[in-house]
Design a protein that fits this description.
CATH class of the largest domain: Mainly Alpha
CATH topology of the largest domain: Tetracycline Repressor, domain 2
Number of helices: 13
CATH architecture of the largest domain: Orthogonal Bundle
Oligomer: single chain
Distance between the termini: 89 Å
Strand content: under 5%
Order of helices and strands: HHHHHHHHHHHHH
CATH superfamily of the largest domain: Tetracycline Repressor, domain 2
Helix content: 55-70%
Length: about 220
């Protein structure tokens, strides 16, 4: 490392947060495709050279902003003791899937098909951790015996977010906590607790219930 490089000031602390927040604001306003490092530098009152000392590309800056900025969605893992409670606690509220979160996602959606660098970073660093949170929720439900061990988590995991994003981007209906609760109660829970999706224990329980009903009819 040269003396000149080692003496470069680092972007960190509150200054870094200001740049990341400015980036998210501009992504929402302009969209990823129209966003430039110049625009971020102007909004954050920083030089473009300062940005490039910390982030090597627009993609890396935007991804870190999506992950860390205060205005970005920050889905955390909440263990409430039930599958329903976990889903509502995780996806409702200001840190869940709300109108701001969908604005952020909408602003970068086209870049997923036009910018390979951004798409790779987005899926690896932004989406993958959220998928892991969802998977952990369903794994805990399996351990509690709420749902069967053979539930297809690859399909059911994204279902809640998928429905909400479809309503937002296709139907033009922004998500709210009441809608999330409706989807959980009327779609997700009935799907994972249906006898055909409940694993061997669920099938056995359904079979036992059916046999009991048959015997009751015969004796009546």
């Amino acid at each position: 490392m040269s003396m000149r490089t080692s003496l470069r000031p680092r972007v960190e602390g509150e200054r870094e947060d200001e740049i990341l927040d400015s980036t998210v604001e501009l992504v929402i306003e302009l969209g990823y495709d129209r966003l430039t490092m110049d625009a971020v530098a102007k909004r954050a009152r920083a030089s473009k050279a300062t940005l490039y000392r910390r982030w090597e590309s627009k993609a890396s800056l935007v991804i870190e902003a999506l992950i860390r900025a205060k205005e970005s969605p920050h889905i955390g893992d909440h263990d409430t003791g039930t599958l329903r409670g976990d889903l509502l606690s995780t996806f409702c509220g200001h840190e869940g899937i709300n109108e701001t979160a969908t604005k952020v996602l909408g602003s970068v959606i086209t870049a997923l098909s036009t910018d390979p660098e951004f798409a790779e970073l987005f899926r690896e660093k932004f989406i993958a951790p959220k998928v892991a949170v969802t998977q952990a929720i369903y794994h805990r439900a399996q351990e509690r015996g709420e749902i069967g061990a053979d539930i297809d988590l690859e399909m059911i995991g994204p279902a809640l977010a998928g429905i909400l994003l479809h309503r937002t981007f296709i139907l033009g209906i922004p998500p709210d906590d009441a809608t999330i609760e409706r989807v959980v109660d009327h779609v997700i829970l009935p799907a994972v607790q249906h006898p055909t999706c409940a694993g061997q224990s669920g099938r056995n329980a359904a079979s036992t219930s059916s046999q009991s009903t048959t015997k009751a009819r015969k004796t009546s």
